[in-house]
Amino acid sequence: MRAAQLTGWRAPLNITTLPDPSPPEGGVVLRVLACGICRSDWHAWTGADPDVQLPMIPGHEYCGEVVAVGQGVTRWQVGDRVIAPFILACGGCPDCAAGHQTICTDQVVPGFTCDGAFAELIAVAHADANLTRLPNGLLPEVAAALGCRVTTAWQALVGRAQVQPGEWLAVFGGGGVGISTLLLGRALGARVVVVDVVQDKLDYATSLGADAVVNAARTGATDAVREITQGGAHVAIEALGIETTTVAAMRSLRKLGRMVQIGMPAGEHVTMNLPMDALYSGQLSIHGTRGMPSWRYPDLLNLIAGGHVDLAPLVTRRVSLTQASDELAAFDHPAPPGVAVITDFAT
């Protein structure tokens, strides 16, 4: 199979030919139809994630067609088109049985703990417990985002913050997961303000229905959000993983507000100085989130099928496997609006 392999930190990915994977017991092999290029992949590319051991094929946000089935798989057969969450839970431990697959101690994470989907084929563990059928009519490049960015945003809004219609939702970071949060928040009836330092991203958020935007490079984000929302947001989403936006998100909340940390803290941001006075005096609730349990897929897919949210505008760049290195390097600076998805694995 053709694959893009990470062989050195911050080095261009090595486009190479590797043996086709075999399905693990309980798993399948997919022909990859599309794979998103995510900021988390950039963390792996820079060497900031300690789970990544070289060489590694990146890519954790994907959908595909089953081409081989391992022993013990009962739900899937060759030819099925499926979506895979980026956390592949075992399905049998106490946490999985309680519905908390994202904290499974035996989880497998493609692109981080095993080879990922910047390749023509990928072996997917624990298929029965994780895979969801790809709905007819949902484009693969859009479905790929249902493996990470969109589902992470859905879990943050529904599973953690439990956002309610009419509430103010402040999204700090207008990248892929931030725009996903905007689209889903609007579909859930929230009023959304997006904060970023790149005006192009804010203009893009406005075109997608943001009620307000704040350019934090030009004005104080916290005061601006509190003014727009007349006292502070009910819910704040941090979608970058850096201290500046985490602090601003906390301080933008009204009393009894809820914040969800979506952005992955890495490198110098693993440890942050946070305003505990705001947490205490505001009686805030702060949540972490990572991925989405597979049992939440039906509600999300029903929202999409019912025409309540259009995720197609999220994808602004369809690229080839050979362009993946350039897209990863782009995260060193403010990336263009929307997300890039690999749809061509042959060139």
TrEMBL record:
Cofactor(s) listed in the protein's UniProt record: Zn(2+)
Gene source species: Roseovarius faecimaris
Q: Per its UniProt record, what Pfam families does this chain match?
A: ADH_N, ADH_zinc_N
Q: Which family does it belong to?
A: Belongs to the zinc-containing alcohol dehydrogenase family.
Q: Which UniProt keywords apply?
A: Metal-binding, Oxidoreductase, Zinc
Q: What is this protein called?
A: Alcohol dehydrogenase
> Recorded GO terms, molecular function?
oxidoreductase activity, acting on the CH-OH group of donors, NAD or NADP as acceptor; zinc ion binding
Does the record bear Oxidoreductase in its keywords? yes
Q: Which residues form the Enoyl reductase (ER) domain?
A: 8-342
Q: Which domain of life is it from?
A: Bacteria
